[in-house]
Structure formats: C-alpha cells, structure tokens
Design a protein that fits this description.
The structure holds two protein chains of two kinds.
Chain A (H helix, E strand, L loop, with lengths): L1 H30 L17 H6 L2 H34 L5 H9 L6 H14 L8 H25 L3 H9 L4 H30 L4 H4 L7 H9 L5 H26 L2 H7 L3
Helix pairs in contact in A: 1-11, 3-6, 3-8, 5-6, 6-8, 7-8, 8-11
Chain B lengths: L10 E10 L2 E11 L4 E5 L6 H9 L6 E6 L2 E2 L10 E4 L11 H11 L4 H14 L15 H13 L5 E5 L7 H18 L3 E5 L2 H7 L2 E6 L2 E6 L1 H6 L4 H6 L4 E7 L7 E6 L2 E6 L10 E5 L5 E3 L9 E12 L3 E7 L5 E7 L11 E6 L4 E5 L10
Parallel strand pairs in B: 3-8, 3-9, 6-7, 7-8
Antiparallel strand pairs in B: 1-2, 1-4, 4-5, 9-10, 11-12, 11-14, 12-13, 14-20, 15-19, 16-17, 16-19, 17-18
The chains are: A mainly alpha, B alpha+beta.
C-alpha cells in the first residue's frame, strides 16, 4: 500500500506549503481588525479603526506615489526593453555582448548595492536634486530591465522567422512587419515583462531606501521607517492593501493584455 | 511594372554567388525561367538550392551576380519590393490571423480598397477550395488546408514569380501526391512562372517543365525530366535520380550510321549517339534497370547488346521484380522486370541481359559532360 502513503505525504507537504505561505498573510489580515493598539492574535475585539488610520494622507500619499512610480517604471522599462530585446535577437553589432551583460547584470547584483551606487553617483555627479522620483525611476528601470528583456526575448524567440519573412515577401516594409507580425505575436511577453516590472518596482525597498526623498517616498520605505519606532495594526492594514492593489491591477492587465489568453484564443472558437 | 516586358524572362540569374565564411554555398549560378515555366531546383541538402531561393527572395544578399525579375534588376531591392509570392516549407502562416486575414495581408500592404481585397480574397480561397473556412485560424486547420492558405496568400497578390520552398515535405504521402497535382494544375492554369525547391526526385520529375540538378553550389545539369533521367550529364545526376547501372567502357571503333561500338567490362556494346565519342575516352555506361532485360542465353534480338549474366537474387516488389545480377567482370548490376506471373528467373540461372542502342547513355568518367567530343 505505497500509493496512499505517498499520496498522504504529498497532501501533507502541500498543506504545509500553503500554511506557511498563506498563514502569515491571513494572520496579518485578521490583526488589522484588532481593537487594541497591540497586534493580538486572535484579536481582542473587532474594529475598523486601523483601516481608517491607513487612509490618512500620511499613508495614502505614499501609497499612490508607489503606484505611480510602479506604473512609470513598467512603462519606461518596456520602452527600453523592447528595442533591446529586438536588437539582441536580430542584429550583430559591436559591443553586443557588453550591452547584453550590462542589461542583465543587475539581476545578480543585490538591489541594495544598486541603490548605494546610484545614490553615490548622483551625489558625485551633482545631480542630488534628482533624488526622489527621477532617481527612483532610473533605479527601478535598471532593476526591472533584465526581467523585461528576458520575457520579451522569450516571446520573440517563439515567433517563427519564416512568418516575418513571409510578411516581407508579401510587401510589408520592416516597420510594417514589426507592427503587423512581430509585436502582436510578442504581445504576451511584453505584457508579462511590464507586469514583472510593475511588481518589482512596487515591491522594492532596498533601492528606494537610498534614493527616496522626504516628499517622494514609496509605501515600502514609509512602512520601514515607521517600523523603526514601533508596530501598529495600521501597518497590517497597509500590508494587506499593498498586496491587494497590485494583485488586482495584475489581474486586470492580464485580461487586457492577454497573458496566456493568447494561447486559449488559438484553441478556442472553432 | 517599371522596365518589365512580357517578352523578358520571368527570372534571370547571372553568375549568382554566395559564400558563408570559407564555405561556398552557391557558386556562379546561371538560370533563366521563362514566363509560365515551372523550374525545379533539385538536389540533396546543402547543395545550395535553398540559398539560391533565399537570394531570389531577397532574404540573403548575394556576394556576386545579378538577379532580374521580368527584366528589372532586383538584387539590391529589399524583399518587400520584389513582388514575389513565396510558399514556405512550414507555410509561415500568421498564427494570430485567420485564413482570410492571412490571404488579405499582401493586398492590405498594397493598400488596395477594402471591397477589392474582400473580392480577391474570396476568389483566392475558392481557387484553393477553402471557401467556408475563411474564419479559421491556422491552428484550427489541417496540414493540407494550411498549405492551401499559404498558396492562396502567395498567389492572391498576382506576383511576377512564385517561389515554392519544399512546400510538400511536411505532408503525409497521400496528401503530398494530391497537393502535387493541385499545385501543378493551378500553376498551369494561372500561367505563373514558378521556381520550386525540393530534394524529392518524384516531385521534380512529375511537376517540372525543366529541372536544375544542383550539387555543391553548382547546377550540374538542367533540362526536362526526360533529359535528366535518360541523358544524365554526370554520375551524380545518374545516381541521384532513380537508380542506375554504371559499367566502365571505352570507344571501340568509329561510328557507323549513328551507332558507336564500345568495349565494356561486361562485354561489347552498341550505342546510338548523334555525336562521336573522343577516341580512348574513359566512359561510364549508364543503363537504367528497367531498360536491362533478361532473356535465355543467345535469344537477344538482333542489333541489341547482349551480356552474359548470372542471376544472384530476385526481390519481389509487387508490380515488378528486382533482379540482382553479376556481370562478366564480376561487378553487380540490377534489372527490373514486370511481374507477369511466371517466376522465370531463379538465383543461380545464367542468362543474357540485353538492351537496345537507345537504352544506354555514356557519361565521361569523373567529368560533367556526356562524353561526346567537343
């Protein structure tokens, strides 16, 4: 009777994995409804007080700033990543290997290091005024670019070369081939890269710690700074918010851009 | 069409050359395809046929030589300005567009009016018998249907030249034969000049007006299917297309009344040739197995060449028998006989193998000419 035993073991392992993944999130969610100003679990009395506190300008400002920053990073990363991925695929040019290494390099570098480097560079270059949104944007593009270039490259690699040649032979100029064939077929990769970039930017605290300004601070840094002085169930509420909002956005984008939906469509309507 | 005149060849290649590093892929190819003609580039993989096609299409830039389409030089034009219809080996349909959109693509790129596009797409789909499937995406079509979409998409733009790059190799046998005759019929009906690339000799023999047999970047021989099969210019051509017996031979005297006597390893032979052979030339006599016939010793018809042979084995192939022979010098040969019911020949029998003066063809040993004197 080996199968039931191994099956039960598998079940137990899966249950444990889910417990460790979802347990803390559930506890955090429950804690945010505490009446007390300590984070008791199970909560002592229920209240929406801390959720109210989360919706004060101190937090909403940082939260909205984080969303704006993530959206800008996602767009900027894609604008930089798409031409890079196309160039890496189609052309041989001097310095290609070096540019590839520089593009993918930040992947192996702790973002903390990238943050320190960026701060020092801006200071030395006399660009101290860029600290805040411009520096955060630059830093996040650097961090997110490897993800974007890789996901776009993967979707480009799946396009049959002959489809592009066929389009050209049918009278499509290189621009028209890109517009009509390459980009539509790479759509899911571009979308996935964009969402990766959005999440990486929204999640980032390491780099943002160094190049945020007092008036332009993402929510992650704001939470870190608040934690230095203590804990409040407001943070639990904010954590849940910071999880749900990007999740909802990703789900929405997935629908609009059609990650994976592309394949379903292929097999779909007969 | 600038400069283009109907009297010009549909395609003219002159001294076309391409090297990849130290490797010469195509070495100085000359080729003319007339209006309405179906020419096949036939050869094993790596012979340069696909590279030649890619240069005509503009996907590869030649190192030297010229390409003229209907009289206009195109070697410096990008692919989208060459006005060609191409059917690719993997069909290269656009997976995100349905059959009708695939076919319409070239017309949209030509900025035709919507109503004209719709009419021509409908015509093209009807022509390849796909009407009713216009809304299907490529993945929802069978291999044969995809092939037809690709064909319709290439033809709907009314190109100056149709290029077919091994379009049948991904289909199963039955479908392949069906598409073969369908493409031929369509090509003749439209009268469109066509260059067809394949490594399949059956496709080449059945579909082509002329066949260019390629080897190591060169055209080894160009001619009708009959020329290529019955009068091969080289050992390569003789053995690449069909199977053949090759017997060493030398001229054995002056020709008389168009008949040339030869001395061969298997015995004396007589050929009918319209040109004299150089005295002392080293020849290989090519005889197709179906032209080599068996008869009891001493009963070969007058005026034919008869060689004594020993029968080594008989292979049953259904409609015909493949008979393995040994010639007088001990070298092997093969004869094909119709399977007419009686199994007359058994291993160990001795017989005469005979052929008529028109049934063998001399190839200059190691050379690429027919062995005739200049």
């Amino acid at each position: 009777m080996r199968r039931p035993v191994s099956y039960l073991a598998l079940l137990a392992a899966v249950a444990l994995i889910y417990l460790f993944m979802l347990g803390p999130i559930l506890i955090t969610a429950v804690v945010s409804f505490n009446r007390s100003d300590r984070s008791y679990f199970p909560p002592r009395g229920l209240s929406l007080h801390w959720w109210g506190a989360a919706f004060t300008p101190q937090w909403t400002g940082a939260f909205v700033f984080s969303l704006e920053l993530a959206a800008l990073s996602a767009i900027a990363t894609t604008i930089a990543g798409l031409p890079l991925a196309l160039a890496f695929r189609s052309y041989e040019f001097p310095g290609k290997a070096a540019i590839q290494a520089m593009t993918l390099g930040p992947l192996v570098l702790p973002s903390l290091v990238t943050g320190i480097a960026l701060l020092q560079f801006l200071t030395l270059a006399g660009l101290g005024s860029w600290i805040g949104l411009p520096a955060l944007l630059i830093g996040h593009v650097v961090i997110c670019l490897p993800f974007s270039v890789r996901t776009i490259a993967i979707s480009l690699a799946s396009i049959p070369v002959s489809a592009e040649l066929a389009a050209a032979s049918l009278g499509a100029s290189p621009g028209a081939v890109l517009r009509e064939i390459t980009l539509p077929l790479a759509r899911s990769g571009v979308g996935a890269g964009m969402i990766f970039a959005f999440i990486s930017s929204f999640d980032d605290v390491n780099l943002a710690l160094f190049v945020s300004s007092p008036r332009q601070t993402p929510i992650t840094v704001q939470i870190m700074q608040f934690l230095e002085f203590g804990f409040s169930p407001t943070l639990a509420a904010l954590s849940i918010l910071s999880m749900l909002v990007p999740l909802a956005l990703v789900a929405l984008c997935g629908r609009v851009v059609g990650i994976g939906g592309y394949l379903q469509q292929e097999q779909g309507h007969a | 069409m600038p400069e283009g005149r109907m009297s010009e060849a549909a395609l003219e290649l002159r001294g076309l050359e391409k090297r990849f590093g130290a490797q010469t892929a195509v070495a100085a190819i000359d080729l003319q395809v007339q209006q309405g003609e179906f020419v096949t580039l036939l050869g094993p993989s790596g012979c340069g046929k696909t590279t030649t096609l890619n240069m005509i299409a503009g996907f590869i830039t030649p190192d030297a030589g010229s390409i003229r389409l209907g009289g206009r030089a195109v070697e410096n034009l990008p692919p989208h300005r060459r006005d060609l219809g191409i059917v690719f080996q993997d069909y290269a349909l656009f997976p995100h567009r349905n059959a009708a959109e695939n076919v319409a693509f070239g017309l949209r790129m030509r900025k035709l009016a919507k109503t004209e596009i719709a009419a021509r797409v409908a015509d093209a789909l009807r022509m390849v018998r796909l009407d009713g499937l216009d809304k299907r995406r490529p993945l929802q079509l069978s291999g044969g249907q995809r092939q037809r979409v690709a064909l319709a998409r290439a033809l709907v733009i009314r190109p100056a030249l149709l290029l077919l790059d091994e379009p049948l190799s991904n289909l199963d046998l039955k479908l392949r034969e069906e598409m073969r005759s369908e493409i031929s019929t369509l090509q003749r009906r439209l009268g469109i000049a066509t260059v067809f690339v394949t490594h399949d000799q059956d496709e080449a023999l059945t579909m082509s007006d002329r066949i260019a047999v390629m080897r190591q970047g060169r055209i080894e021989q160009i001619g009708t299917a009959r020329d290529i099969y019955e009068r091969p210019a080289s050992v390569f051509v003789a053995t690449f297309i069909g199977s053949t017996n090759l017997v060493r031979a030398k001229p054995a005297g002056p020709p008389s009344e168009g008949l040339v006597p030869l001395a061969t390893a298997a015995g004396p032979a007589i050929l009918r040739l319209d040109r004299p052979l150089a005295a002392g030339a080293d020849l290989l006599l090519a005889i197709r197995p179906e032209r080599l016939q068996l008869t009891p010793t001493g009963t070969a018809p007058d005026g034919s060449t008869a060689w004594p042979v020993r029968i080594e084995g008989v292979t049953y192939l259904g409609g015909r028998l493949e008979i393995a022979l040994r010639l007088a010098d001990g070298s092997p040969a093969t004869a094909h006989a119709m399977n007419l019911g009686a199994m007359a020949w058994q291993p160990g029998h001795v017989a005469d193998a005979w052929f008529r003066p028109d049934d063998a063809w001399p190839i200059l040993d190691g050379g690429a000419s027919d062995g005739a004197a200049p």
